[in-house]
Amino acid sequence: MTDHRINLTLYKLNEIMEGVLQEVIDALSNEFQAEQLLNLDDHLNAQFH
Fold this sequence. Notes:
The chain is mostly helical and 49 residues long. The protein has one domain. It is built from two helices and two strands, in the order ββαα. The chain has a two-stranded antiparallel ribbon with strand order 1-2. The protein is elongated and about 50 Å long. The N and C termini lie far apart (43 Å).
């Protein structure tokens, strides 16, 4: 399974089809958090510069 949005490739299709999704969820969550931190940093930099 590949998610090009977050550059993740897992060779665990059987597990994923059985609902074992924690590795996918963790990767998506990490990417979301990183994006939120970048947005916050951009917002703070815009306010103070």
